[in-house]
Design a protein that fits this description.
This protein folds into three domains: 187 residues, 3-Layer(bba) Sandwich (FAD/NAD(P)-binding domain), CATH 3.50.50.60; 131 residues, no CATH class; 72 residues, no CATH class. The chain is built from 15 helices and 21 strands. The chain is globular and about 75 Å long. The mean pLDDT is 96.
Length: 495
């Protein structure tokens, strides 16, 4: 079977790398891209699932971080979302340690109601390590419970794509340079038969992967998959991105800072800091947004702010006829929880799971679409929660508090408010712990906790919480500073 990937960037080269690594040589993989067409490049912050992707490719972690000028990421700090001056962290990994039949957080809620528990972050090894600006991939006290911090990366997405290009071409992927000027469809099936380049060259294929970005050249223009608009839930529609010089401290976490009409991201790399302002044009004009962003940088800007326009939402059919969409061509969810590259990774996984053995079967296509729709919808709900549960007074934020919530999110909120219960449905991306940190961080308090949390007795619960805190503190003290760890293991030479 001939697979043609339309578009490079992170999505295209991630697909090429995974397919060339896992498929046998009789599968012919071609990637078409043009150096004249730029990439969006906002996906520099990731979540821990990226470790699985790189691991499946067999990529050495230290070499990857050197090549992409990457740093480690222990979570995302949200500043000013609950109220100006307040902050909390959505840290990776577990919070606390479950005891008996119920999750840790019910014991924490029980102690909190009595006034003896500290803030939730004190019981997260990833958050405590991040606050101390320390990091280690290995557990400094392996004999003690809890383990090492869970982590992901910050890295330069353009450098990542370049690294994956070398990886893919070494495994037989053929790259064609050039703009696409025409798409030829099969007269009977309506499937894509070939694409025509500006040079006149025709590239034929059996399965096409659309990584053409927001345009959706194949999935939208050619085979007509409808775009479903989610602006009523996620009203931000523009972003400005700008790099700046590095700050003195290399923080091991992403910052998401609430602003007048949206939020600002801060992503620390070895050689620079990536910054951006995601905002709603109904509440701030482009010049004011640019001024706000430039006034809140850690160092001198290294370029002019790059404008990005988008509409949050997804394709009704992620896979239609013989076209599979990945990346921005299949939908857009703003990078608030660093899910952009994960959705590419997830789409590749589902495609490999359902890869046609011969002709494309309707059952496989339907399954792919169901799974990707579920992933988009569950991530959407998590993002909407951040906006809805705010305590700010600006008109944009007031409008967000008045959003009509999706039924699925409303149910989750009602369950948590009544009893502190959280459930993960069908392997949705964000765990109960992730939901917990955002709910508590933005001021949503349950009326009660699980009745079994009272069983050990107040003294035993307090002792249990204190023991977790002590273990975390002991492990954190033994870890090196984040920047020192990078210098010792994976420096690009620009730190």
């Amino acid at each position: 079977m001939r697979i043609v990937i339309v578009g490079g960037g992170s999505a295209g080269w991630m697909a090429a790398a995974a397919l060339s690594r896992l498929l046998t040589p009789e599968w012919k993989i071609t990637l078409v891209e043009s150096d004249q067409i730029g990439t969006v490049g906002v996906g520099e912050a990731t979540i821990p699932q990226i470790l699985l992707f790189n691991g499946a490719l067999g990529i050495d972690e230290n070499e990857f971080l050197k090549a992409t000028k990457g740093t480690f990421k222990l979570g995302i700090e949200f500043e000013g979302w609950r109220a100006p001056g307040q902050r909390y962290m959505h840290a990776f990994g577990q919070v606390g340690r479950d005891l008996g039949l119920i999750p840790f957080h019910h014991y924490w809620l029980q102690a909190k109601a009595r006034g003896t528990a500290k803030s939730l972050g004190h019981y997260s090894i990833s958050e405590c390590t991040a606050r101390a600006n320390r990091f280690s991939r290995t557990d400094p006290l392996p004999q003690a419970p809890l383990g090492a911090p869970a982590y992901a990366y910050h890295f330069d997405a353009g450098l990542y794509a370049a690294m994956l290009r070398k990886f893919s071409e070494a495994r037989g992927v053929v790259r064609h340079e050039g703009r696409i000027v025409d798409v030829q469809l099969d007269g009977e099936s309506g499937a894509v038969a070939a694409i025509k380049l500006e040079s006149g060259e025709m590239v034929e294929g059996d399965l096409f992967i659309d990584c053409s970005g927001f345009r959706g050249l194949l999935i939208g223009d050619a085979v007509g998959s409808e775009y479903v608009d989610w602006s009523k839930w996620l009203p931000c529609n523009r972003a400005l991105a700008v790099p700046c010089k590095s700050a003195e401290k290399l923080l091991p976490y992403t910052r998401a800072i609430a602003r007048e009409a949206g939020w600002q991201w801060r992503i620390p790399l070895q050689h620079r800091i990536g910054n951006g302002y995601v905002y709603c044009s109904d509440h701030i004009d482009d010049d004011s947004a640019a001024a706000t962003l430039l006034a809140n940088l850690d160092g001198e800007p290294l370029a002019d702010p790059k404008p990005i326009r988008f509409t949050t939402g997804y394709r009704r059919h992620f896979w239609k006829k013989n076209v599979v969409s990945l990346g921005l061509s299949c939908g857009f969810l703003e990078p608030l929880e660093s899910t952009s590259l994960h959705l590419v990774q997830s789409g590749i996984k589902h495609l490999i799971d359902l890869l046609p053995a011969g002709g494309i079967a309707g059952a496989e296509v339907e399954r792919f679409n169901r799974q990707m729709t579920f992933e988009f919808e569950t991530i959407r709900d998590f993002l909407v929660l951040h906006y809805w549960a705010n305590g700010r007074n600006e008109p944009f934020w007031q409008a967000c508090r008045n959003l009509e919530l999706p039924d699925s999110l409303q149910h989750k909120l009602e369950l948590f408010r009544s009893s502190g219960r959280l459930f993960r449905y069908n392997e949705e991306l964000f765990t109960e712990t992730g939901w917990l940190q955002v709910l508590i961080g933005q001021g949503i308090e349950p009326a009660s906790c699980h009745p079994l949390a009272n069983a050990p007795g107040d003294h035993a619960v307090d002792k249990y919480l204190a023991s977790i805190e002590e273990v975390i503190a002991a492990k954190t003290r033994l870890m090196p500073e984040h920047s020192d760890y990078i210098r010792q293991n994976c420096s690009s030479g620009e730190l």
